[in-house]
């Protein structure tokens, strides 16, 4: 991983130790990174769309700010346009090499600027409705299991088409809630399909949610992990962690956040935002 990082003058927020909440945050020593890339094949420059009066990136930043545990948020941007946007809404950024291949690489570069941080949470920039409680949940998964390297989330799959949809990444957990495998294929594979499988409790089929909390030391050495045939085959980065013997804890949430990949996704978000704004004003 390589980059030429630049930061604005407030690259790391610190919670005020004067308040109880501030003391809680400092004790947790976790930090959010929002990797932000300008180009997007399906929806060009989607992070700067602002029909709501705020950019998608600002909405994501504000939603992530509702988490109680992290000491602050840094946006890992790949261009001056995004850096200017972050500055405009009062956020903190690290300017990273635009050639970096993934959000994890940007999180790595941003995290190198931190001090006294044990956990780094990677929040995708196109998640304007991310739940702060979900961010706290992945942090708590690492706090309660010192042997875990990574924490992430999943949600029950209740629709048959999602089970067989390769765009829906599935995860299988052990009894200790550790990830056994991630796949684009149906896992577990239903040899004898029965519709009632979708209603089982605990859920039989789980959709992976791309929210990650990394131990700082793990993230700093992630680039040293050997290439993974499983990762190359499924195009899922988390399989590199598993194949290297790393431990991933997987928590459950009721539903996945609605990310923005297409114009239809954005239009639906704008509509939901408008309805919420009208409801709040009544």
Any descriptors?
single chain; 282 residues; alpha/beta; Spore Coat Polysaccharide Biosynthesis Protein SpsA, Chain A; 10-stranded mixed beta sheet; 10 helices
Describe this entry's structure for a reader.
The protein is α/β, with parallel strands linked by helices. It has one domain: Spore Coat Polysaccharide Biosynthesis Protein SpsA, Chain A, CATH 3.90.550.10. Helix content is 32%, strand content 18%. It is built from 10 helices and 10 strands. Strands 1, 2, 3, 4, 5, 6, 7, 8, 9 and 10 form a 10-stranded mixed beta sheet that branches. The N and C termini lie far apart (50 Å). About 6% of the residues have low confidence.
Topology:
Elements: E1 6-7, H1 20-28, E2 30-36, H2 56-64, E3 73-77, H3 80-88, E4 93-95, H4 103-111, E5 119-122, H5 132-144, E6 150-156, H6 160-163, E7 170-173, E8 179-183, E9 206-215, H7 216-220, H8 229-234, H9 238-243, E10 248-252, H10 263-281
Parallel strand pairs: 2-3, 2-5, 3-4, 6-10
Antiparallel strand pairs: 1-4, 5-9, 6-9, 7-8, 7-9
């Amino acid at each position: 991983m390589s980059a030429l990082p630049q930061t604005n003058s407030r690259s790391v927020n610190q919670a005020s130790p004067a308040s109880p909440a501030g003391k809680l945050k400092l004790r947790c020593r976790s930090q959010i990174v929002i990797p932000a890339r300008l180009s997007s094949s399906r929806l060009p420059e989607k992070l700067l769309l602002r029909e709501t009066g705020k950019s998608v990136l600002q909405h994501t930043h504000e939603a992530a700010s509702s988490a109680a545990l992290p000491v602050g948020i840094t946006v890992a941007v790949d261009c001056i346009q995004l850096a200017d946007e972050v500055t405009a809404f009062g956020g903190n950024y690290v300017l990273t090499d635009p050639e970096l291949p993934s959000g994890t690489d940007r999180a790595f570069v941003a995290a190198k600027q931190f001090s006294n941080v044990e956990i780094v949470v990677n929040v995708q920039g196109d998640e304007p409705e991310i739940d702060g409680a979900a961010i706290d949940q992945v942090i708590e998964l690492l706090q309660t299991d010192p042997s875990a390297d990574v924490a992430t989330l999943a949600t029950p799959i209740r629709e048959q088409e999602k089970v067989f949809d390769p765009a829906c990444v599935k995860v299988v957990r052990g009894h200790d809630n550790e990830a056994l495998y991630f796949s684009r294929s149906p896992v577990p594979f239903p040899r004898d399909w029965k519709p009632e499988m979708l209603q089982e409790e605990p859920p039989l089929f789980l959709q992976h949610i791309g929210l990650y909390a990394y131990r700082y030391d793990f993230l700093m050495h992630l680039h040293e992990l050997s290439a993974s045939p499983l990762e190359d085959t499924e195009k899922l980065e988390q399989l590199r962690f598993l194949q290297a013997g790393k431990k991933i804890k997987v928590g459950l949430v009721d539903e996945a956040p609605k990310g923005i990949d297409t114009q239809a996704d954005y239009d639906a978000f704008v509509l939901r935002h408008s309805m919420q704004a009208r409801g709040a004003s009544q």
